[in-house]
Design goal:
The chain has 61 residues and is mainly α. Helices cover 80% and strands 0% of the residues. The chain has one domain. The longest helix is centred in the middle third of the chain and has 41 residues, at 20-60. Pfam families: ACR_tran. The chain crosses the membrane at residues 27-49.
C-alpha cells in the first residue's frame, strides 16, 4: 500500500513540477521492482536450498 501512496507525487503539478514527478517515479518504480525481484529471488532461493538439502539427504543414505 505504500507504492500507491507516492502516486500523487508522480502526478504533481505546480511550483515544483520538475522535481516531484521525477522523485515520485523513481520511488514508485523502485518499490514495485524491489517487491517483484524480492518475490522472484526468495522463491528461487527457497528452491535452490530445498534441492540442496534433498541432494545431501539422498547422498547420505
Amino acid at each position: 500500500m505504500t507504492s500507491p501512496g507516492v502516486m500523487p507525487l508522480m502526478f504533481a503539478k505546480g511550483a515544483s513540477d520538475s522535481t516531484q514527478p521525477a522523485t515520485g517515479t523513481g520511488v514508485f518504480g523502485g518499490m514495485i521492482s524491489g517487491t517483484l525481484l524480492a518475490v522472484f529471488f526468495a522463491t528461487c532461493f527457497y528452491v535452490v536450498i530445498t534441492r540442496a538439502v534433498e541432494y545431501r539427504q539422498r547422498k547420505r543414505d
